[in-house]
């Protein structure tokens, strides 16, 4: 019976370690549910895009915030060697260290260069599209912020 308890104990320790490793590798910082003010801003750009669009989405954020994550994906792409990058700008300046390169069907994370967003800042999403007769379908950009 004692060996059964030891096996269960080792299994629980292994599960806890795996859970910690998965949590520690999250691209966007995980805040406790007790932290108020975490806001997710999903921007779904429905339809097919074939050319660079600057901006494809534009809004004024109604509060000051700290940007903690930006990700983007596209459902599908077509054409010959289509390329797509997504950039997020705060009052005309990118908040990312470089635009996010997209591969259809996968979620790509951006690296934040400037996390501070002022109250009433104008946020713009810029699509840069290249390739021969490129098409990109149903693009989603997800911004996660914590209110100041």
Protein model, in words:
By secondary structure, this protein is an alpha+beta fold. It has one domain (about 35-145): icosahedral virus (Jelly Rolls), CATH 2.60.120. The protein is built from one helix and eight strands; from the N terminus they run αββββββββ. Strands 1, 2, 3, 4, 5, 6, 7 and 8 form an eight-stranded antiparallel β-sheet that branches. Strand 3 (about 65-90) and strand 4 form a beta hairpin. The longest helix is centred in the N-terminal third of the chain and has 23 residues, at about 1-25.
Brief rundown of the structure:
This protein has 148 residues and is an alpha+beta fold. It contains one helix and eight strands; from the N terminus they run H-E-E-E-E-E-E-E-E.
- Choose one word for the global shape: elongated
What's the alpha carbon Rg, rounded to whole Å? Answer: 20 Å
Largest sheet: 8 strands, antiparallel
CATH topology: Jelly Rolls
Low-confidence stretches: 10-14, 16-25
Q: How many extended strands?
A: 8
Order of H and E elements: HEEEEEEEE
Cα separation of the termini? 54 Å
- The quaternary organization reads as single chain
Give me the CATH superfamily: icosahedral virus
CATH class: Mainly Beta
- Counting structural domains, the number is 1
CATH architectural grouping: Sandwich
Helical content, roughly? 10-25%
Tally of helical segments: 1
The percent range for strand residues is: over 45%
Mean pLDDT reading: 86
């Amino acid at each position: 019976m004692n060996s059964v308890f030891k096996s269960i104990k080792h299994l629980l320790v292994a599960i806890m370690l795996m859970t910690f490793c998965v949590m520690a590798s999250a691209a966007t910082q995980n805040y406790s549910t007790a932290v108020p003010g975490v806001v997710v801003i999903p921007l779904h750009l429905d339809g097919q895009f074939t050319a660079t669009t600057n901006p494809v989405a534009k809004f004024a954020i109604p509060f000051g915030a700290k940007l903690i994550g930006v990700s983007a994906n596209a459902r599908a792409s077509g054409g010959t060697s289509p390329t797509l990058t997504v950039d997020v700008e705060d009052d005309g300046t990118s908040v990312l260290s470089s635009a996010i390169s997209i591969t259809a069907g996968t979620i790509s994370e951006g690296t934040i260069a400037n996390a501070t967003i002022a109250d009433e800042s104008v946020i713009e999403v810029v699509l840069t599209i290249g390739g021969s007769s490129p098409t990109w379908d149903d693009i989603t950009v997800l911004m996660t912020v914590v209110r100041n």
